[in-house]
Recover the amino acids of this structure.
């Protein structure tokens, strides 16, 4: 078509269905995951500066003074669980599975993934609190 | 107090490209559909407003536009069922606006033609009688033959908004319509066209095209079925079955 709208249009949800929300957040979550991947590489690269430096950095972002990163990790887990569940749904769609009940599949996969997220967060919290 | 008028806010674009909104008050007892409201405006309030329409009964596909933010046919949108007295009318997104509510629909038809929307036969076409089809064979593609080429699906599709070269839902529903036709022998030509980056692979199954379709064609479902056909076609090519 001649008229190009731009990616910001993806986030105009008013009057749109759940499929639109699923599409937009699949893209947004994908970008967040790629961003985190590079952030992860940057943190890992501190291994080159020796085990003491690396342990100090990991300790500081887990137990303080920069433990705000734990909150970011929770958000990251939310994004990964959402992205993974929706991705599996779309892969099944591509194989012709669940096409006629696509919306139901979306809700089903997201409810299951959020339940798994809660389990994950419980064990993550225990790991941090108990060690 | 019940208001006796609808407030139409119509997006305008003049010859110089200037965009603005015009407000018109339309008596409720004079109109039923949004299209009737627009006709009332052109006949009684503002003759400079440009609107395209023809059949007024959701057959010709001419009066597609955005009504309160959703792509709809103006002729079949009942004003009283919108749930508000304020009616915002805008031209379809993803199309170039010619004037006011009239958009250039040519790119839509160019894409539609790309899908070879006609019966293709491998013989010479000389038959002693017509090519017969059973009701069951007709049922196979009936749903996809209901498309009125209104272009609402291309407005609704977010992929079209960011990739203008994407062939789009309507053209692919048209491809499936002919691929499922028992008289057709040209599915491999169509699959060659729509297999790939600007065809079925570009669809992310948002489903908005099917939500917008006034005739229940379900292009989003058609594209997923075409993916399956396309995969079989590519595998057949690899294993030299055709």
């Amino acid at each position: 078509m001649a008229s190009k709208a731009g990616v910001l249009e993806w986030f105009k949800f008013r009057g749109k269905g759940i499929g639109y929300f699923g599409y937009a957040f699949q893209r947004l979550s994908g970008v967040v995951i790629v961003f985190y991947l590079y952030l992860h590489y940057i943190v890992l690269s501190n291994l080159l500066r020796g085990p003491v430096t690396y342990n100090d950095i990991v300790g500081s972002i887990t137990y303080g003074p920069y433990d705000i990163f734990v909150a970011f990790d929770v958000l990251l887990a939310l994004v990964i669980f959402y992205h993974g569940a929706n991705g599996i749904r779309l892969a099944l769609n591509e194989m012709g599975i669940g096409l006629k009940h696509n919306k139901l599949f979306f809700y089903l996969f997201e409810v299951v993934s959020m339940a798994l997220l809660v389990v994950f967060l419980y064990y993550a919290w225990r790991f941090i609190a108990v060690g | 107090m019940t208001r006796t008028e609808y407030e139409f806010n119509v997006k305008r674009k003049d010859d110089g490209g200037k965009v603005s909104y015009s407000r018109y008050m339309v008596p409720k007892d004079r109109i039923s559909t949004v299209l009737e409201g627009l006709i009332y405006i052109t006949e009684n309030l503002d003759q400079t407003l440009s609107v395209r329409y023809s059949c007024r009964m959701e057959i010709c596909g001419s009066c597609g536009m955005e009504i309160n933010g959703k792509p709809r046919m103006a002729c079949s949108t009942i004003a009283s069922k919108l749930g508000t007295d304020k009616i915002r009318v805008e031209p379809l997104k993803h199309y170039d606006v010619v004037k006011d509510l009239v958009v250039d629909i040519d790119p839509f038809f160019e894409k539609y033609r790309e899908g070879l929307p006609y019966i293709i036969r491998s013989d010479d076409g000389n038959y002693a009688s017509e090519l017969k089809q059973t009701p069951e064979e007709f049922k196979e593609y009936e749903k996809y033959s209901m498309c009125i080429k209104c272009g609402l699906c291309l407005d609704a599709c977010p992929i079209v908004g960011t990739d203008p070269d994407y062939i789009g839902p309507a053209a692919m529903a048209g491809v499936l319509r002919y691929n499922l036709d028992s008289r057709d022998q040209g599915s491999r030509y169509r699959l060659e066209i729509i297999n790939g980056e600007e065809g079925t692979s570009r669809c992310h199954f948002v489903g908005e095209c099917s939500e917008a379709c006034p005739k229940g064609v379900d292009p989003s479902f058609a594209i997923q079925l075409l993916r399956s056909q396309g995969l079989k076609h590519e595998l057949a090519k690899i294993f030299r079955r055709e």
In short: Chain B touches chain A at residues 68-70, 93-97, 104, 107-108, 154, 158, 160-162, 164, 168, 204-208, 211, 220-221, 224-225, 227-228 (CB under 8 Å). Residues 93 and 155 of chain B are 5 Å apart (CA to CA).
